[in-house]
Amino acid sequence: MSALSPNTNNTTQYSPDPDSSKRILPNPSPKSAYRWNQENYSINRRRFDIWRFVLLLLLKLWLNGKKWSYKGGYEEAKLFRRRKMQAAWIRESLLELGPTFIKVGQLFSTRADLFPAEYVEELAKLQDQVPAFTYEQVVAIVEADLGKPMNKLFRHFDPVPIAAASLGQVHKAQLHSGEEVVVKVQRPGLKKLFTIDLAILKKIAHYFQNHPKWGKGRDWLGIYEECCRILWLETDYLNEGRNADTFRRNFRTQNWVKVPKVYWRYTSPRVLTLEYVPGIKISHYEALEAAGLDRKLLAKLGARAYLQQLLNDGFFHADPHPGNLAVSPDGSLIFYDFGMMGEIKTNIREKLMQTLFGIAEKNADRVVNSLIELGALEPTGDMSPVRRSIQYMLDNFMDKPFEEQSIDQISEDLYEIAYDQPFRFPATFTFVMRAFSTLEGVGKGLDPEFNFMEVAQPFAIQLMSNTNGRNGSNIFDELGREAARVGTTALGLPGRIEDTIEKLERGDIKIRVRSSESDRILRRLSALQLGTNYTLFIATFILSATILYVYGKVQAAIAVLLLAIAPAWAFFRLLRRLDRLDRMF
C-alpha cells in the first residue's frame, strides 16, 4: 500500500505504506489515546477489553437466533438489517482493539466460507485509524537496529511521517549518496502487543473449537495458527524486503512494471528502506487524464500484470487495492507494499487444472474430487448436498460465455455456496479471489467497459491447453490420460467386484438407508414420549396443589403451581416443534 504526503491533494503517490491496510494520515484525532498505544498498558485491562468484545459478540450472535428478540416478530429482512449493524459494530470494535485485531479482521474479510456475507463485506472496509508515534521513538528504533546515529545514516530524514498505520509508519529521507528513499519503521512495542493478544486469542480459539454449535466443522485452532503465521511474517521487514526483490526479479523483463528497490544496508527486521518511486494513484482518474495516460490501456495492464504473477510466476501480490498501485508519468505500473504475498506451487496448479476441466465439463463429481484434493473441501459422510450445490452453480455459471462473466459475481456465488457448508477455502484461494475482485473494480473505475474475464481468456486457454508447457499437459494429453484411467479402472473392476462379494460374505459391509418418512415417525414418537412425561409432571403438580389447597395450605399450593410452569412451558415448546416438523416433511 502506498503512502501519501499530507501536503498534497492526494494525486501523487510516493512510497509503500507501513502495511497492507488502508492508508491514513497521521492527523491527531479524539481517538488518539488508545490504551494499547501507551508504553505501560495494563495486561489485565487488555484481557478485559478483548473478552468483553468476545462475550458481547457471542450475546449478539445468540440473540440473532431468538425470534422473540425481534420487535414486531421475526423477518428475514430484520435479521439482515441486524447483521449489517452488528458488522459495523465489529469493525469499529476491532479498530479500538488495535493492530492485532485490525490485521485479524482484514484476514477474516477473506473467509466468506466462515462468516455471513454482511460481516465479510464490512470487514473488507477495515482501515487503520491509529495515531503516529513520535520522532524520538523512530530515531531510537532506527539507530538501535542499524547501529549508527541518524546523521551518519541519512543526509536528511523528515521527522513528519508521510503515512501511519497499525504496524508502522513511513518517513521520506535522503541518503548521503543523494538517493531519495522512504524508510518504513515498525511501531514500538508491536511484538510485545502481538504476543499478549495472540495468547488471549488462542484461548478464544479453544473456546470456539469446543463450542457445540460454532465449533462444529470448523478448525478454529488451524485458523488461529494461520493468522499467527501471517501476522508474524508481516512484522518481519526482512521478509518483506525479500518479497520485494523476488517480485522485482519476476518483472525484470517487463518495462511497463516498476518495483521499488530495497536498500539492504539500511534494512533490518524493524526498518525497511526502499527506493523513492513517485507516481499517480491509479484511482485518481482526473490526474491520469491530465498526464495524458490511456485509462483503458492501464486497466488491461493491471489485469495482465496480475495474471502473469498468478499463472506464470506463481508468486503474487495478495493485496492489490488502489493504494498499492500507482502509475508513473511514462505509463508504467508501480507496485507497493510486499508484506502480504501469495504463492501457488506447481502441484497446486496441477490440481487446479482438474478443477478447471471439471468446470468446463459441468462435471460436479470431478469438481468435488479435485476440491477435496486441494484441501478446499472437507469430505463428509454424505456429499450429495454439496454436489448438488456445485452442479447448480455450474449450470448457472456456464450460461454466459467465459468472457462475459464477472469475477465479483462468481466470488459471491462461490462464497454463498461455501458458507455453512464443508468448504474450507485455503488462504491462497481467498487471496486470489479477493485480488481478482479488487482488480476488476479498479479496471471498471478506469474503464466502465472493462471486463476482467475478457483479458483473462487467453491466459485461461493457455493454462488449460499447456499449463505453461509443463509436463505436456494439453487437451490431447488430458484425453489420453482419461482413456488410460478408464482402461485401468476397467481392468481392475473384476477384482473390486470379487473383493466386495468377499466383504459381503464376511459381513464387513454395512448399508445405511435413510428414509425421510421413517425419520419423521421416529422424531414424532420421541416427541410424543417426551410430551407424555411433561403431561405427567403437570398433572402431578396440579393434583398436589389441589390437595394442598383443600387442606388449607394455600401458600404451598401456589408454590407447587409455580413449579408446574416449567414443564408446562416445555410442553408448549414441544408442541410448536412438532408443528414445525410436520411442515418440514
Automatic annotation (TrEMBL):
Could you say which residues form the signal peptide?
Answer: none
Q: Show the InterPro entries listed in the entry.
A: ABC1_dom (IPR004147), Kinase-like_dom_sf (IPR011009), Prot_kinase_dom (IPR000719), UbiB_kinase (IPR050154)
Give me any GO biological process, just one.
regulation of response to reactive oxygen species
Annotated organism of origin: Hydrococcus rivularis NIES-593
- The answer, when asked if Zinc-finger is one of the entry's keywords, is no
> Which PROSITE patterns does this UniProt record tie to the protein?
PROTEIN_KINASE_DOM
Q: Which UniProt keywords apply?
A: Membrane, Transmembrane, Transmembrane helix
Listed GO MF terms: ATP binding; protein kinase activity
Protein name per Swiss-Prot or TrEMBL = Protein kinase domain-containing protein
The record ties this protein, via CDD domains, to: ABC1_ADCK3-like
What GO CC annotations are associated with the protein? Answer: membrane
User: What does the similarity note say?
Assistant: Belongs to the protein kinase superfamily. ADCK protein kinase family.
Coiled coil regions in record = none
Region ranges (Disordered): 1-31
- Short name of any one Pfam family annotated for the protein: ABC1
TM segments? 530-551, 557-575
